[in-house]
Amino acid sequence: MRKVVCEKEDIDPGDMKSDSLGIIPIVVCRTKDGEFYAFANRCLHQGAPLSEGALRGDNKRTTVHGNYEYIKEGEILRCPWHGLEYDVKNGGCMLADPEQKLRNFEVTIEENNVVVYK
Ligand code: FES
What UniProt keywords apply to this chain's record, in alphabetical order (predicted)? Predict the structure, then answer.
């Protein structure tokens, strides 16, 4: 199955867009570096629509006591309901269990269109 979601410029870097692939709700994320990723638009916890969450970064503790660095700006998809965070580069649930992953779909750019495949 193939779905043209929108034109490439319709999703700004660091933003996302919801759509559907057949009966499957999907969310297409565009990272700050311009890469596109598509996932089932349902949180693994209680099914919240992830497209209503936020694409952001996260604070990671450094080896220096009390210091944090902001990492992965625009690469972390945060659930709107209870805050689970997913790494959009691989769909893994960052804190709870990185081995639990969102269902992902192939995304290509074809003639300036964002196309998702199942
Ligand atoms: S539904 Fe996403 S964290 Fe609870």
Answer: 2Fe-2S, Iron, Iron-sulfur, Metal-binding
How many separate domains does the chain show?
1
Q: What is the share, in percent, of the chain residues with pLDDT greater than 70?
A: 100
CATH number of the domain within which 15 lies: 2.102.10.10
Does the CB atom of residue 118 touch ligand 1 within 6 A?
A: no
pLDDT digits (tens, 9 = 90+) for 23-44: 999 999 999 999 999 999 999 9
CB 30 within 8 A of CB 12: yes
Whole-angstrom distance, CA of residue 89 vs CA of residue 108: 15
Ligand 1 pocket test: which of 43, 76, 93, 97 has the largest number of ligand atoms within 8 Å of its C-beta?
43
